[in-house]
Amino acid sequence: MNTENYQLAICDDEVYWQKEILKYCKIIEKRKEIAFTYHIFSSGEELLEFKDHLDILLLDEEMKKISGQMIKEYFESVNRDTMIIFITSHNEIIYDSFGKNVYGFLEKPIVEKSFYELFERILTKLNKKQYITLPDSINGEIIILCTDIIYMEADGSYTKIYLKNHDMMIVRRGMNEIEKANTFRNIIRIHKSYIVNFNYAEKLTADNTFLILTNGIQIPIARRRKKQIHELFFKIAAERASNIWDY
Predict the structure, then answer these.
(1) What is the pLDDT of residues 194-223, one digit of tens each?
(2) CA distances from 74 to 61, 66, 84, 100 (A)
(3) Which end is more exposed in the chain, N or C (fewer Cβ atoms within 10 Å of the end residue's Cβ)?
(4) Residues 166, 167, 170, 174: is their CA dihedral positive or negative?
(5) Rounded Cα gap, residues 71 and 87, in angstroms
């Protein structure tokens, strides 16, 4: 199973808090079986020089020169869709820090339970909007919202991609290449000819030989993958139930 990878930045002008935040992020990685690519900044100036995409930004509110509030306003002005979590020692600042990019607040000293609960919500939202970039010799690269993909089917040296709006796309790449390009945790290869988005999985047949999707399509499960798919199906179903109020 592929591991989801997120671009995560920590911006704090104190090394102690950089290390503390990093420690809790590594706990999240282990618990959620995901991976973060870390970017550490010691000032707002350093952060603003970084132009690559960031999924999550853990941002100290009270920095010299360029404050967390100023960074938030800049991100909003240029329409960067980074999810910002403010970290502050003074909770009264929270009331000045709301915005479309702000998804939560944490107070120093950080409480592990609060950190974990906030990241549960953040990751649920990120899963909804993650994209996959597929190499394609016909169209160059194709970028698709992961939650739009229902399943993929091998067709010789091509792959058919079935989308939730009932469209079907064809890319000139085999399943192995597409599997390598995928980092979305719920999109899983269950057969040599099929990759499925488990967000659209409805049930398993009694003998675990087919996965039935919400549109009624039955996808065969490779014999050697039966146990893995059975466990994964019920794990994702449990996560979906626990996060139902976030949808």
Answers:
(1) 999 988 888 999 999 999 998 999 999 999
(2) 14, 11, 12, 12
(3) C
(4) negative
(5) 13
